[in-house]
Amino acid sequence: MRDDESPSLTTWAIAHGCTFHSLAVSPHPLYGGYGLSNSVSTTATADENERTALFVPNSLIISMDLISEAAEGCEELADVLNALPHHSNLEPIITVFLLYQVYLRRENRPSKWSTYIDNLPKSTLLPITWSEREVEFLSWAGTSISRAVPGKLAFLKSVYHHLQQTEGWFTSISWDDYILAESWVSSRTIEDPRTNTPLLVPILDMANHAGVRNAAWEVTDTGIELRREPVDIPAGAEITISYDLDRGTGERLYRYGFIEDTDAGTMSKGVTLVGPFPPRLPGGNIFRVTANCVSDEFDLSFLTYENWYLLFHVD
Questions:
Q1: Per residue in 223-254, pLDDT tens?
Q2: 271 or 70: which carries more pLDDT confidence?
Q3: What's the first-to-final CA gap in the chain, in angstroms?
Q4: pLDDT in tens, 48-94
């Protein structure tokens, strides 16, 4: 085991049925948080078994069925789930489930998910966590998500305040707790291709995005596999997947809190770049909007779906 590997998370996953094949969970040297990496070199000619990097069993995948089963045996979880407003979006169900695990952790009532919760990030760069001034700036900018972010915040606030009226454990959940858990769900869930419902898959959700991936996940009858692409991957190299290839720049920022790496030296019409520029990272930069990112002469009408990322810099 490497010195920088996370033994608690890995041991937890293996104890609950995960199988690792020449794969390590370790802190990411550039982005923070965790990533997945090859523990030995693998080749493009590897057979099918060697290409499998990770197996996560159905029993460790947070799905609608798993949450429903958990609620059947837990009245206090069921009460809050039943209080959720009815709507077509199922992600709030996973948010409530995770918040219940957070509550149990604080009450020193260990659950199956305690170690996983401990290893989830405690901050996020998703636009729903931005300051009021930053969201206001985004609204002025006229991007593809200018209306979506305030709209989602209004929806989340209505759900949160509604659930705060329930008796019991949810009254101890702060707005910051709620928005963080919502960020976990937004940025880490995948869609089950069989049912079109969201899934949160521990360990798989530690895989970072790359425009040119070297792995992909696949649903099986017994769980989900992460399989290496038929390419040479050296020991220590990061195992990456591609998040939602059909999403644009704004949509990726909205859902995941990052934008693709681009040529930061390229100017678009009407856009003023404000330095200092952040260090360039392979695969994608994570940027925050701040009101002082633009000069007084900046014309927001030119901040479009295609070029708005040119404003951003790290706080």
A1: 999 999 999 999 999 999 988 766 666 777 78
A2: 70
A3: 35
A4: 888 999 999 999 999 999 999 999 999 999 999 999 988 768 999 99
pLDDT for 247 equals 67
Task: In whole angstroms, give the CA distance from residue 10 to residue 149.
Answer: 35
Q: Which two tokens stand for residue 112?
A: 């199956």
Contacts 24+ apart (CB under 8 A), 19-23: 19/54, 19/55, 20/53, 20/54, 21/49, 21/50, 21/52, 21/53, 21/54, 21/55, 22/50, 22/53, 23/53, 23/54, 23/226, 23/239
Domain ranges in the chain?
62-194
pLDDT digits (tens, 9 = 90+) for 114-156: 999 999 999 887 889 887 877 777 777 666 777 888 999 999 9
Q: HSE of 11 in the Cβ direction (CA atoms, 13 Å)?
A: 7
pLDDT at 254: 83
